[in-house]
Amino acid sequence: MPLLEKLQEHLKGVAGYVVMTDAEHMPKTSLPNVYCYEELIQGQPDTFDWPEFDEYAASSLCYTSGTTGNPKGVLYSHRSTLLHAFSVLALPGLNLSEESAVLPVVPMFHVNAWGVPYFALMVGAKLVFPGPKLDGESLATLMNEEGVTDAWGVPTVWLGLLGHMRKTGQKFKSLRRVLIGGSAAPAAMITEFETQYGVEAVQGWGMTEMSPVGTVSFVRPRDKSLPADQQLAIKVKQGRALFGVEMKIVDADGKRLPHDGRAFGELLVRGPAITSGYYRNPEANAEAFDSEGWFRTGDVSRIDPDGYMEIVDRTKDVIKSGGEWISSIDLENEAVGHPEIAEAAVIGVAHPKWGERPLLVVVREAGSNLDKDGVLDFLRGRIASWWMPDDVVFVDELPHSATGKLQKVKLREQFKDYKLPTADA
């Protein structure tokens, strides 16, 4: 409410404000035309006769997070929403039922909480919402009190939760699986969930434009006999496509590349729950689709013969050094494997010889005195020598969007004039 009070002179189209509370808890405010929600619905029927909609009618409108530009509207139909929910429930290994209690640690405005409110209720699962408190202690308490079995959220949320569990020695009473999406899940995070707490950690990938789930990385029954390190190599990939999602990778000329696990290029997708165009945005649509009608995801990916897709980087985030590509995602995932690194981000910084070189931006764990040499020593032998960051910078926090995604646009702006120590060499 204090935010709205500061903005009210700019909100000229607003006829009134509904406060989600009862008369007893109505706050004092300078806003005009304020209504109490409970008073508005008092005396109204508690049943509703659902109207009949055409299945192609619009059901909801979500906007992209705008991490690489202005947000763009994605309009969902009743048909696409239902087909997406069916496709998620058809995932082998998901096993949601009336015995499940699902906690979406993503806000409703983030692609309808990843569709969880639709497919969880379709199978009669209990639905638990976290409210405003997303810190590790609050989430752990809520999970144990409500018997949560499945939780969906972004890596930054799970970093906080694991940090709390580590600090307190607390255990999960009912949690059996977390699904990690929004950005790449580090191998160290997956391993800690599974080895320390017996919680299956599953990586997923998708986009607002895909309703949003596109792939999920469950280990197939035939691969569960593989050694742990080989299973982990599968889990850190973004996974296999949902039913109804088609994928292809192409080179700079739009030519299809083989799904051999080695070739990588821009990832394109299509399917019945994938957008056919942005809402009232012909300029964006002109760039978003290829000549065959496939949607350009903006991700650089490889796909192996078993259908597992792996994000190498975002087309705007990949670092081009001396004509070769360096994956910022792979570098970040290796860095956060260090026990004293809470979070890390890699961006390309201008270099007079190589064009770009990687800069590693690190948030230390509380109480850590980790320095640059300690980080670089940890990375040696884990990455190609020419991938080694040219410098390491320590910060108190990294910029994130409201949906928890790392905002590299802000990082690049912050470090646009940064001079690497190797620039004069």
Describe this protein's structure:
With 425 residues, the chain is of the alpha/beta class. The chain has 3 domains: 2-41, no CATH class; 58-313, ANL, N-terminal domain (Rossmann fold, 3-Layer(aba) Sandwich), CATH 3.40.50.12780; 317-414, GMP Synthetase, Chain A, domain 3 (2-Layer Sandwich). Helices cover 25% and strands 24% of the residues. The protein contains 13 helices and 20 strands. It has a 7-stranded mixed beta sheet, with helices on both faces. Strands 12-13-14-15 form a 4-stranded antiparallel beta sheet. Strands 18-19-20 form a 3-stranded mixed beta sheet, with helices on both faces. Helix 12 links the parallel strand 19 (355-364) and strand 20 (391-394). The chain starts with a helix and ends in an 11-residue tail after the last helix.
Please tell me the CATH architecture of the largest domain by its name.
3-Layer(aba) Sandwich
Radius of gyration (CA) equals 23 Å
**Measured distance between first and last alpha carbons:** 54 Å
Major beta sheet summary = 7 strands, mixed
What's the shape?
globular
Structural domains: how many: 3
Mean pLDDT: 93
* Helix and strand composition category: alpha/beta
- Poorly predicted spans: none
Percent of residues in beta strands = 15-25%
Number of DSSP strand runs: 20
By CATH's scheme, which homologous superfamily of the largest domain applies? ANL, N-terminal domain
Roughly what percent helix?
Answer: 25-40%
The total of helices stands at: 13
CATH hierarchy class name of the largest domain: Alpha Beta
Output the CATH topology of the largest domain.
Answer: Rossmann fold
Spatial ordering of strands, largest sheet:
6-5-7-8-9-10-11
